[in-house]
Amino acid sequence: MVAKDSEVFISRIIGLPIVDAVGDQMGRVKDVVCHLRADGMAPRVKGLVAELFARARIFVPMVRVRSISPSQVAILGQVDTRRFQRRDTELLVSADLLDRSIGRERRTRIFDISMTQVRNREWELSSVALRSSGGAGRFGFGGRSEPQVVSWRQIPDLILRTGRTPAHLVAEFSDMLPADIAQELHDLEPDSLAAVVRALDDETLAEAIEELPEDEQIELISALDTERAADVLAEMDPDDAADLIKDLPAEVAEDLLQRMEPDEASDVRRLLMYEEFTAGGMMTPEPVILDTGASVAQALANVRNESLTPALASMVFVCRPPLETPSGRYVGAVHTQRLLREPPTTMVASLLDENLEPLTPDEPLTQVSRFFATYNLVVAPVVGTKGQLLGAVTVDDVLDHMLPDDWRGDQMDEAEAIEMTDA
């Protein structure tokens, strides 16, 4: 395990085997993907390029990297096996930077670059090792001395100059919330919008689309080529993807579903079976589900998953196998706040909220909203006629369906008007 603030030199991990949670090798590290950031911040490491045994190259996000050792890189969870496609604003450390000559006389080259874990599974480029080929280079290193280590700030190729190009906008987006990125996309002229969308990674674009007004969602997804549109839909929350697909022409929607990964498409197809303003139509099929034998420690480890929204992390659901929706028999729910008050070895199944009756998938929005108000909840289980857990409705989904259809557009127009007034 690499501790926070410790450095890993990238040349030393190129070629290392990548192993999954059970220790099986899935491929090898071929490169490290990063992008520049605005306001003088260090370039952020987005993930690894992994080469599988079939020589296909895929992208592994850094959030999936559990540990880096001298002998291997260990990852957690499933990774997307679609072929890696580089975006215009991305840098490949090995391919683009290592061995590059720099300085006025081009006598100094980049020998290595290190990355540092600054937060939980969040990495940045930190130091650059330089080696001179003789004479005095721009950085003052002469002869054939040992590599000299400098800050990334001293390397022009790692500094983003001021401007409003797609690269600058994408760099700014890396430290913005999805709703703020959506506002920026909403304000862009069509040509600039198209360029920025091409440069954005699928995950960031998907999160921003979820925050756009419905008509802009449709317009943006329809402007993408079919393959990329399917990739972006796959990155969206299944309930948001289902809501968007419902508004597309039937033949377009089916084409996109056919191009999505089968598991991702099946989640969306299940949600499409329900009316939009019902519990089934609003639910997410990916809540936190535990077996009846799980302990409090295991439950808390699951809700620490940083990809979970605060609402989904506020409750765990206990079921019989299988533990994916639709699950085996639903047993009950436990509030995370209750978990925090219990010893780690306590069985979660002994802590069920006996007063919480689940929703049925056909319950209308009016009943769902009353349910949330009655039980003071931010997430609620949805259980089918056979007693299986189908998913969970979160309070933000309820509010989204209760507000007027154009509430996002009104909010963005108000923000734009305020900016113009301040100017």
UniProtKB/TrEMBL annotation:
Keyword rRNA-binding tagged: no
UniProt GO molecular function: magnesium ion transmembrane transporter activity
Segments forming domain CBS: 352-414
Pfam families, per database record: CBS, MgtE_N, PRC, SH3_actinomycetes
GO-annotated cellular components: membrane
Keywords, ordered alphabetically: CBS domain
PROSITE patterns the UniProt entry points to: CBS
InterPro entries tied to this protein: CBS_dom, CBS_dom_sf, Mg_transptr_MgtE_intracell_dom, MgtE_N_sf, MgtE_transporter, PRC-brl_dom, SH3_actinomycetes
Domain of life: Bacteria
Protein name: CBS domain-containing protein
Protein source organism: Tessaracoccus bendigoensis DSM 12906
